[in-house]
Amino acid sequence: MKIGLLGFGTVGKGVYKLTAARQDMLVSRVLCRRELSLPDAEVTHDFADILRDSTIDTVVEAIGGLHPAFEYVKAAIEAGKNVVTANKALMATCYDELLPLAEEKGVLLRCTASVGGGIGWLSELERVRRIETITQVGGIMNGTCNFILDSMTRLNLSYDAALRQAQFLGYAEADPSTDVDGIDTWHKLIVSANIAFGVSLDRDGIPAAGIRRVTADDMAQFHAHGYVCKLVSFACRQEKGFAAFVQPTLFPNRALEASVPTNYNLITLVGSTSGRQSFYGQGAGRYPTAYNVVQDCMDIQKGTGFYCRYGSKAAVHNDLPMRYYLRGGEWQDAETRWGDAVITKPVSVAEMHHWLSRHPEAFIAALPAEE
Ligand code: HSE
User: Fold this and answer.
1) 135 and 236 Cβ atoms separated by less than 8 Å
2) pTM
3) CB hemisphere CA count around 102 (13 angstroms)
4) 144 Cα–ligand 1 center, Å
5) Is residue 114 lining ligand 1, measured as CB closer than 6 Å?
């Protein structure tokens, strides 16, 4: 396999190093803005050099972001090249364009590293779907947010100090707002749910709340009441359509989610016969992510393409009732108070996120149903 590698940042460099040690694949050209010299690959500033090179059968996209990643991936597919990408923003946003195009052109497209870093989550969804219906997916999908919340919980670090450390360790996106506002988790949820359910979910119906406003006082309240706060995604099949959302959520200390450390992810599916299956591993970082890119390249060598056929558009209805910890705004229907915050009576997810969109200074976290 001859690879044209787009990008030589955290992930691209990892892919280059892992493939350099292999006999079955070669990165022969690298697209990079910087001046760079590599022993085994030609470095170019011009994507056309990769597109025109007929010896390159597979393009690995490790640029991140939507543009120019979308234009490059689309052009590669149109040129008949297989594509491996770690880009969740691209796969979530351009799903309706890229997946049918790959099917039409008969090229293989994979994106396992786009959700869960080093966890083989998307590839496992494909295997589960062969046997049974997946009824629910979700969990801790963002290493940066988990690192921040874990550092605040266990090490009493301030929010800012924890975020700086996550950036230093290479976990955060170029713009860390994408992480802390829940957008990265939102992208990963969309990709996961589309594959798990074989549909294209209505993205506009999926709200995301992040952790930007969380404080040390919030953490103290959670600790006092026996909870740990995590940023989680959730999507499930319902009688009519699907529910899907991203929000900070409180887990009792004994829950699996509560003990997920540093940049680790814990992602769960519920299968109609297998029940709950959870996947745990490093959700961010150079080598965990590069590992799954190389796995995808090997799958492509075997002729394995996308995880499911392109499915129809599906509506999202978030009418599930939940109780929330809410600080930084007035709420009419409170059940009790925790310090400066209220615990609301059950309210639909849609209503709470609608309220939050009008009170961006507030912080919310959902409480588990049974508590
Ligand atoms: N910024 C992402 C995270 C990188 O922190 O999880 C991996 O997708």
Assistant:
1) yes
2) 0.97
3) 26
4) 6
5) no
